[in-house]
Amino acid sequence: MTGFIATKPCTSDVPALAEEALWQELDLTPKPGLVDKFNNGAHRDMDHRLFECSILAITPWFRRFAELGESYAHLPANQQLRLIRPMGMACEQAMYAATDGVNTHKGGIFALGLLCFAAGRLGEMSQASLCDEVSAICHGLVARELGGRRLQATAGERQFHQFGLTGARGEAESGFATVRRVLPGWNGRGLHTLLLRLMAVNPDSNLVSRGGMAGLRYVQGYAQQLLAQGWDEQDLIMMDDAFIARNLSPGGSADLLSVGWVLSGITPSP
Length: 270
Fold this sequence. Notes:
The chain has 270 residues and is mainly α.
């Protein structure tokens, strides 16, 4: 089984792709360990309806990110993060207001907001140029925000110092290297396949927070096994049950799935 097959025209309208990506990710079912139409996955504080409210609250901001990027396109890439942060925080507050304080899409806001902002700076783009622009904007981010603090106050800082994991910051600074690694072999064969391919290789910090490195290895191994042997919907349902029993939610891979949807809608080369 290849999962749900979604098609779309190639376009440079990154804000529209970003909005579409969040709806595609939410409606993908079954989605092991994650909120879908069947259940709430490994989450007790959120459900499908809450995600709908969150998406409606944050997607208007994607066009604003692109407009902001266009406004500051004349400034060097290394000056951009301080300009985008206030808008990113405002978008997060819109999310929290819609969800009564529940973090449904903070990772998605970070990744998709950066893509929209970078697209506004570039105008015409390819997959490579868009990802390279995000990488340039985020240059040095991991060293500054994860490696440069002696007191490890956040889960991201602790994971970086203990395991070398860089999380969403590292993925953005790399120009979404994990997504670009799996997209060429995906070839549009359904979002379930793309999600499994991401889970198989993504060093997902969400999994480490919930289940330690053992939880991460369990999810990666499980996804690799399904990809190697073949799978159907019942296999995904069993995977969902296993993740829920272990309180594992591959939220980082869900965020990268949305990034993958956006990038797959952009011409690979100029």
